[in-house]
TrEMBL record:
Official protein name in the record: Zinc finger CGNR domain-containing protein
Pfam families tied to this protein: ABATE, zf-CGNR
Stretches that traverse the bilayer: none
Residue ranges annotated for the Zinc finger CGNR domain, each copy included: 144-185
UniProt xrefs under SUPFAM superfamilies: Jann2411-like (SSF160904)
Length: 188
C-alpha cells in the first residue's frame, strides 16, 4: 500500500522532497513504482486533466534521482554552499515544455500556452525541477525551514506574515511538541 502523500510545504518542490518521510519504523516513501509517481503528480496538480497515458518506463528511477538531487540542492542552499545541479539541469533541458501562441476566447487576446512536450519521464518531472529552480533562486528562499519536531524530517516554506512557523503542520507536529513541552514543564 502506498503511504499518503503529505502536501504541507507550500511549495511543490518541497512537497516532492517530502514524499519520503519519517525515520526508523515510521519511514514512508510515497514513490514505490512508476504508477505511484503518476499518482503523486496528479495529486500535486502537475498533470493535465485527464491524464490517460501509462507511466513511462524509468519514471520511478528518475523520480528518486530527482528527489535525492533536490534535497541536496535545498540542503546545500540552506547552508550557503553549492551542490551538483546536473540532474536538475538535464531535466530542465529534456523536459522543457513547448510554447505555443493561442487565442484565448475569455480574454479576447493571444497568449503563450506552455504545453507538455511528450509523455516521457523527463516531461512529467520537469515541473518539479522548474519549481525547485524557482524556490532556490527566489529571495524568499531564506524562509525554507525544517520542522522543529525532534522526529520529523519534513521541509516547508514559511510564507506566514511573521515568518515564525516552526512545524510542518500544527495539527501533527506542532500539537505533539506543545503537549510534550507542557508535560515537561509540569513534571518539574
Amino acid at each position: 500500500m502506498t503511504p499518503s502523500a503529505l502536501f504541507l510545504a507550500d511549495n511543490v518542490a518541497l512537497d516532492f522532497i517530502n514524499s519520503e518521510y519519517g525515520v526508523g519504523d515510521d519511514y514512508h516513501d510515497c514513490l514505490i513504482d512508476d504508477q505511484s509517481v503518476v499518482g503523486w503528480l496528479q495529486m500535486a496538480g502537475l498533470l493535465p486533466e485527464p491524464f490517460h497515458c501509462w507511466a513511462p518506463n524509468g519514471l520511478l528511477a528518475l523520480a528518486h534521482q530527482l528527489r535525492r538531487c533536490a534535497r541536496e540542492i535545498v540542503d546545500s542552499a540552506m547552508k550557503d554552499s553549492p551542490a551538483d545541479p546536473t540532474v536538475i539541469n538535464a531535466l530542465l533541458e529534456a523536459g522543457r515544455p513547448i510554447r505555443k501562441l493561442v487565442w484565448n476566447d475569455e480574454d479576447q487576446a493571444y497568449r503563450i500556452s506552455p504545453q507538455q512536450r511528450d509523455s516521457s519521464a523527463e516531461s512529467l518531472l520537469e515541473p518539479i525541477a522548474e519549481a525547485l529552480v524557482g524556490l532556490v533562486t527566489n529571495d524568499k528562499f531564506e524562509f525554507v525551514r525544517q520542522c522543529e519536531a525532534h522526529d520529523c524530517v519534513l521541509l516547508f516554506h514559511d510564507l506566514t506574515k511573521s515568518h515564525r512557523r516552526r512545524w510542518c503542520s500544527m495539527a501533527t507536529c506542532g500539537n505533539r511538541m506543545k503537549v510534550a513541552a507542557f508535560r515537561s514543564r509540569n513534571k518539574s
